[in-house]
Amino acid sequence: MRFTFNKLTTMFFRRLHVLTAAGVAIHVALEHLEKTEVDPDFRQTLEDCVQDLVAGHSIAACFARHPRYFSTLVTELISTGERTGGLVAVFDYIATYQERHLKRIHQVVAALIYPSLLFLVMLGVTWLYVYILAGKNSVLFASLGEATPWPTRVLTGTAAVIGAAGAGDHGDRQTQGQQNTSVATHGPLQGVDESNTAKRPPKRA
Q1: Average pLDDT over residues 192-200
Q2: Whole-angstrom Cα distance, residue 19 to residue 7?
Q3: Residue pair 33/12 in contact by the 8 Å Cβ criterion
Q4: This prediction's pTM
């Protein structure tokens, strides 16, 4: 079992806890939350829960019919709260847990932003060196008469292979395009010349 929640359910359980802790009946609280809900899908879910509750179903059973918003663990906790008379404490526990979990998610996302930017910068610097500076450095080392360091040789070789592959593909596409253009331009004329030659009578000796 696990929690299935988002900002909608987190705010819902917090508001439900506040209303029930103030002494508002559960069906009245649900009706108020259903009328003030902005999200249309979740508002329809709350409306269905209110109808089921009025029809005589338990709160846990009403929520269990909508697993998209209320997980099995949530409904089991609510069922326990109904049996023990501690629904208000259960609503507070669920809301607090979801708030803490969302806070941790936001903290993790915020902590990953800076390393992600550094990784993108590193990729940009690597691309700049491989495609632009590696060849120039090899020429510089050769002109100085010194041996090229092995990391530079590896990067230079990689850049040469990638550059040759890219140039080969570009050259093949360019040659194919020129051939297509030549056929499209001269093909019909050659066909006319051949037909005219075939129609000409042979020269007598």
Answers
A1: 48
A2: 18
A3: yes
A4: 0.58
